[in-house]
Amino acid sequence: MTPSQIIAEDHKRFGHSQKDTARLMETMNAMIQKNAAHLIQHGDSLLFLVSLGNKKAEINFFTADTPQKIKSAMVYFIKQVKNAGFNKVYGENGGAVLNKTLKLLDKLGLNVEKSDNSKYYWMSEL
Predict the structure, then answer these.
(1) Which CATH number belongs to the domain containing residue 85 in this structure?
(2) Which of 21, 122, 124, 126 holds its CA 20 to 30 A away from the CA of 57?
(3) What is the span of the domain harbouring residue 64?
(4) For residue 108, what are the contacts with CB-CB under 8 A and spacing of at least 6?
(5) How many CA within 13 A on the CB side of residue 1?
(6) How many CA atoms within 13 Å lie on the side-chain side of 105?
(7) DSSP letters of the chain?
(8) What total of structural domains would you count in the chain?
């Protein structure tokens, strides 16, 4: 799948409108064009990485993968983020599905905790 298809599928699963999805993709594309963000794909999963400076990044996860393939994607993404020199990542609240993702990150050895930055819901040191 293409990144656009993955994002559309992920957003559809959560009940977002096509208009909201298109607006998100426009914002993401603009950030990527300005080198303010990067998109990493593994299978049918994406990690949208926004540098916050000081080796910190905001991450957003999109997937159309099966649950069995998500763990492999997460392992790949963690390695890529570490290799890029980041040592702390932040994320926003995403409801019940986020809780499953955070538990998976915890199982993969990341200490997920409440954010020290009020803009974000959670953080993890890599």
Answers:
(1) 3.40.630.30
(2) 21
(3) 3-125
(4) 71, 74, 75, 78
(5) 18
(6) 23
(7) --HHHHHHHHHHHTT--HHHHHHHHHHHHHHHHTTSEEEEEETTEEEEEEEEETTEEEEEEEE-S-HHHHHHHHHHHHHHHHHTT--EEEE---HHHHHHHHHHHHHTT-EEEE-SSTT-SEEEE-
(8) 1
Read off the tokens for 116: 């020290």
Cα separation of 44 and 69, whole Å?
9
- Residue 79, both tokens: 């390695």
Q: Across-strand partners of 59?
A: 49
- For 32, the token pair is 């990527």
- Chain Cα centroid distance, residue 47: 4
| Burial (CB count within 10 angstroms: exposed 0-12, middle 13-18, buried 19+), residue 62 | buried
Q: What is the pLDDT of residue 95?
A: 63
pLDDT (tens digit, 9 = 90+) per residue, 42-90? Answer: 999 999 999 999 999 999 999 999 888 988 999 999 999 999 999 999 9
